[in-house]
Amino acid sequence: MKNSQDFATKFYSLTFSLKLRSAFIRLSAFALTIAIFFINMSWTDVSETSFFSRMASTVAATLIIPGLFMVMSSPLTSMAISSLYLKARQTKSGNHSGTAEEAEISQKTLFTTKRKIFTGIALALSLLTSNIAYGLMVPSSTKVIAAPRVQIEKIADSENAWVQYDLAIRDLLELPMLSKSMGKKLYEVVGDATVKQMTNPIYGSLEKYAFGLEELTDKQIEYINKHENAIEHLLVGAKLSKAQYYTGTPNISTPVPNLLQMRALANLAAAKARYLQKQGKVQEAVELALANYKMATDIGSETNGSLISGLISVVCRNIAAKSLLTLIHSGATTAEMDKEIARFVAEQDSRMLNVYQFISSERQATLVSFEDALIKQNYNSDTIDTDDLFFNNSTALKELIKSSPGLRTRIYTKYYELSQETLNLMRESTENWDFVQAEKVGKEILTQADPWNWNWSPADFIATALFYVGVPNASASMKSLYTDNTMGKTVTTFAACSAYKKNHNGFPSDLALAMTEVGLSIPQDLTTNKAIGYRLENGNPVVWFAGIDGMNDGGTQAYESVKRHIASPGKDFIFSYGQLPFQQ
Q1: Phi, psi (5° rounding) for residue 573?
Q2: In this structure, are residues 76 and 120 in contact, taking their beta carbons and an 8 Å threshold?
Q3: Were 88 and a residue from 12, 275, 503, 548 both cysteine, which residue would form a disulfide, CB within 3.0 to 4.6 Å?
Q4: Which domain does 90 fall in, by range?
């Protein structure tokens, strides 16, 4: 009993010191939390994860949890001190139970079940808050992988076909200030004028005339003659061996060729080519039609071109291909002209990128934009439009991301990871033109990229949401490019057959005979990697391709024009000499 009383006496004398230590724990925990907050804030302008920042991240991650734990445990320490204080009083006084006030304090300091539950919830919330705060403020310890950037050497204007194409568009739209070098906002300024020009009734029927479906009116003839300068610039540009639209690594804000403007120029050239042919100037007509095909191919053959550029190219190449077929079907061309058409079109078709290359360029442009905005924090208009990236001009969200280095680096890292995984998944099916596999891969990618299928990390959720919204539809794009490829190969085939007929008074029974005479091999169907189908029907050539289902069914039933992008078992793409593809 004496030992107990001695111990109680000593402990009673230490209670004041314990109270001071409790106060010191509280102040230290608070100071530690504030210090960590300011350390994180000082990393707002970190451009990349260096050794120092990784070390700082590790230290902060180590200290923030015990710091918050001390904040949580401080009230429990006070409760324990009060309880021990009363125990000491009771022991020193024997059976003394203390005053009523002390008894009330003792009762209040009990660690009841309710307090245990509250403490557990508070601790869990603190851990969750610290985890989110760490993700927002502390940069990732994983080294950020730089976005792939290509060094593009600018070619001289005198060698660049796009300089001439720009001049052609200026003349066509009667907007002398139009230039490819203009910023995005200036492109928007001319947008209304472009739409107005393209909806002009005089322009509207040019495409039908170009394909021999209608005749020109006097006003349309006047319109064509009015834009001789546009035609001249197109011809000059097509003779140049180089065409460079992008003078730097593109990003998602980099302007692309304007679809309405390029289509208008392609239609004008196609109408002019037929107008020349009707006037008996067949060689000039062929030259212009081939120049038109070259311009359309230049849009989609640039190594760093976007997927949008590729699809614009498909639209313009479709116009130019039908223009060439119209000339071939007219019978006005000579055998040498037909051979020239066959060789030239085959050469241009070989320049077109495949779907994987377009999507790879698209992903590169996106990653460059995200790196500029999230890692380098380069927000000038030449690199990225932040309003496009940060969700409809949301200033609050934009400021949150700008002031959260941890969030920024994690969003970029996750987006980079998703992009690479997607490219790897897409590669085999897109390079092999396997539509069935591409459909399966597309569904798999959408499932994996669905933000609701990921954990609730804010960075992962934002990155996957952005990726999910912007992931390209490889299957749909591949179908468009496949259809374009069949058009080009049909032009090549029918041009070779037309040349053969003029030299032998009849179309060839075997396609190899005609192709050999023009120095080309039989075109291959991309989906089967085998020669396209060919036969004579009522004395005229008929060619067919397997179509979207990838099965050569003998060319007995044709895909419906409006359903050519849907797999149709038992049907093929069938094109007959004298008829324009997909015109029904």
Answers
A1: -75, 115
A2: no
A3: 12
A4: 2-137
